[in-house]
Specification:
157 residues; 66% helix; flat; DUF7322 domain-containing protein
């Protein structure tokens, strides 16, 4: 059966391993006498899969975390971006985020509507999604226009 290993092959491969010397496992102990206690799959895995060194606890970790900048130029760019974000007016940032969310919602709804019409043939449901997506686009445009008008009035007055 495919789930049970052939016993002749396992017996032949064990005698070949013992004649070449003792096998050393991950813990450094000789395992030549313990081979009979392990299953065929374990013996094959020990032969095919190399021992993986997961590191030494005594060695310091020299790898930087993903969030740390790799060089001075990246650190300077991150500092400049942080400074620029701090200088942005809260009203402008809020308007920007709301406009972006409205545009993304519009894209998502129009796409879902087109997929429903194309794959399911449900014109009413798909048309509803498309209509709501177009309303989201209109809301984003109206929010942009009103924010622009407010900024011009404050700046001009």
């Amino acid at each position: 059966m495919p789930s049970e290993p052939p016993t002749e092959i396992a017996a032949n491969s064990d005698s070949g391993d013992q004649s070449s010397g003792e096998d050393v496992g991950a813990d450094g102990a000789a395992e030549s006498g313990d081979r009979d206690d392990r299953s065929y799959e374990q013996r094959v895995m020990d032969r095919l899969v190399p021992d993986i060194d997961v590191g030494d606890a005594n060695k310091p970790d020299t790898h930087k975390a993903d969030g740390e900048p790799k060089n001075d130029a990246e650190a300077d760019a991150d500092a400049e971006l942080a400074d620029a974000l701090e200088e942005i007016d809260d009203d402008l940032l809020t308007a920007f985020i709301r406009i972006v969310v409205s545009i993304k919602a519009g894209i998502l709804l129009v796409s879902i509507g087109l997929l429903i019409i194309g794959f399911q043939g449900l014109l009413a449901v798909g048309g509803g999604f498309i209509a709501v997506g177009c309303l989201a686009f209109a809301h984003a445009a109206q929010r942009y226009w009103s924010h622009k008008q407010t900024r011009q009035q404050v700046g001009g007055g």
